[in-house]
Amino acid sequence: METKLYTLIIYSENFAGILNQITAVFTRRQVNIESLNVCASSTPGVHKYTITCFCTEEMVMTLCKQMEKKIDVLQANYFTDDEIFIMEACLLKISTEGLLQNPAASKAVRHHGARIVEVNPTFSIVEKKGLTEDILSLFEALNEMGIVRQFVRSGRIAVTRDCIEHLDQYLEQRELNK
Question: What is the 3-state secondary structure (H, E, C) of 22-78?
Fold first, then answer.
């Protein structure tokens, strides 16, 4: 079976220990989490987990079903990249001396649509938002010049292409069933 990158969007009530329960589902199935982002959702008291992993469609369906069995998980859905809008962010700390002495460095920053947000005599900070591939391309370009001192990138954030939020439908139906 073919493995590919899936993005899972999971909603839970805001209770301590839920993240541990969610990651345990991946551990039991021996599926590695590629990226993880947790934040409050637009629904009060509900948190949104955006997790990416490489697996088969059969496995991602199993993961979602297992997570929805957790008492505090409201909903778990999976998506391919064409079903969602995605973004990541990164920060690169680069040598200011290397930046000033190598015109290709500032050209790479501009070419990749990044911004220099801090410059001091020792280091400069470059910020980039976009798709994973674009961020890694900028990192590789600057790293080949030997000027990268630190690199960090966020987990993926995502919203669906659907007009209505899946969680909203679920909560409306839950209220009707009460």
Answer: HHHHHHHCCCCEEEEEEEECCCCCEEEEEEEEEECHHHHHHHHHHHHCCCCEEEEEE
| Burial zone of 162 (CB within 10 Å; 0-12 exposed, 13-18 middle, 19+ buried) | exposed
Question: Which residues are CB-contacts of 159 (< 8 A; sequence separation ≥ 6)?
Answer: 84, 85
* 8 Å CB contact between 114 and 138: yes
Residue of higher predicted confidence among 123 and 83? 123
* pTM of the complete model beyond 0.85: no
- Would you say residue 175 has pLDDT above 80? no
* Domain of residue 105, residue span: 86-153
Say yes or no: 98 and 128 in one domain.
Answer: yes
pLDDT tens column, 106-141 = 999 999 999 999 999 999 999 999 999 999 999 999
For position 54, which CATH number holds?
Answer: 3.30.70.260
Query: Do 147 and 99 fall into the same domain?
Result: yes
